[in-house]
Amino acid sequence: MEYFYTSAYTTPDQAPEFGLSEHIKVFSLAVDLACPGLEAVAASNFRETLSNKVADLETYFTSIESIYASTTPEHPALRTIVVEAAIIELRQLLEGPVRTRFLRLASDVPGFHADVMLTLFHNPSRPVEKFAQELCEECGPRDEGDGYEVTTECKSCGMERTLEFY
What pLDDT is recorded for position 156? Predict the structure, then answer.
């Protein structure tokens, strides 16, 4: 009701969850009531909370399970938010100590796994983090745009070929 009087709503602001589950419930209610304005506010609040307040990965993983259990692809706003967050942090999720938990989540919530893969597939040119590659321990990292060439023999014809890396 608060939304209908003020165009906003409040949730508990306590760690580690900071009201994520309430935003998911409000979003689902907005879908049921066919209220796109409330749907957009709930999605915006969810994104802001996830991006700026939640630091606990288990809270994030729990929200993914809840979102995929209570929303549909016809109303993808919350799904898109958690998928984008996963893609941004994918390197840490796959290399870090949370790898096992993340892979179990992807297995338990196949819709999430598929959405991550499809998003990466459909947007191959999306911005990604750039890491300066180390040439060697003495040279250090390469500068932006600092390419190099490697000349090698072609395995098939034996001719020398040069590859450029940038």
Answer: 79
